[in-house]
């Protein structure tokens, strides 16, 4: 009886060990590779992303374009490190500033300019990706 159990256990352990040495081959659809390449291409060439800006001016009517341009120039001369954008969406000319990734960043800058622009507010918008800060090496 012991002999039969011993042979059965060797056979069982041998089959388990043999099963561990197998190879798995995955045969995938080539359309998946095409989708991955298309996704990479679109992300590489995407010029905008969702983010936040601060709207400092909007107006419609006579001379609204001139007033919007004046507001943009006034902001740019005072805060030259932050980019300002003039846009027209009928019937309003708007001046929006900044390229903030998060609302928290936009709200922080809004507090800095609130004295000059008391009616300014944050808006969700498509932004130009700001450059990422590179941490200094500790060498």
From TrEMBL:
<dbReference type="Pfam" id="PF05036">
    <property type="entry name" value="SPOR"/>
</dbReference>
<protein>
    <submittedName>
        <fullName>Protein containing sporulation related domain</fullName>
    </submittedName>
</protein>
<keyword id="KW-0732">Signal</keyword>
<dbReference type="InterPro" id="IPR036680">
    <property type="entry name" value="SPOR-like_sf"/>
</dbReference>
<feature type="domain" description="SPOR">
    <location>
        <begin position="46"/>
        <end position="129"/>
    </location>
</feature>
<feature type="signal peptide">
    <location>
        <begin position="1"/>
        <end position="19"/>
    </location>
</feature>
<dbReference type="InterPro" id="IPR007730">
    <property type="entry name" value="SPOR-like_dom"/>
</dbReference>
<dbReference type="GO" id="GO:0042834">
    <property type="term" value="F:peptidoglycan binding"/>
</dbReference>
């Amino acid at each position: 009886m012991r002999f039969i159990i011993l042979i059965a256990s060797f056979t069982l352990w041998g089959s388990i060990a043999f099963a561990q040495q197998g190879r798995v081959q995955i045969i995938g659809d080539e359309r998946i590779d095409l989708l991955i390449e298309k996704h990479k291409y679109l992300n590489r060439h995407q010029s905008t992303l969702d983010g936040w800006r601060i709207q400092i001016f909007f107006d419609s009517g006579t001379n609204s374009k001139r007033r919007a341009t004046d507001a943009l120039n006034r902001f740019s001369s005072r805060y030259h490190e932050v980019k300002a954008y003039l846009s027209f969406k009928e019937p309003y000319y708007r001046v929006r500033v900044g390229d903030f990734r998060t609302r928290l960043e936009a709200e922080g800058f809004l507090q800095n300019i609130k004295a000059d622009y008391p009616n300014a507010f944050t808006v969700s918008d498509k932004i130009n990706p700001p450059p990422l800060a590179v941490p200094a090496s500790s060498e």
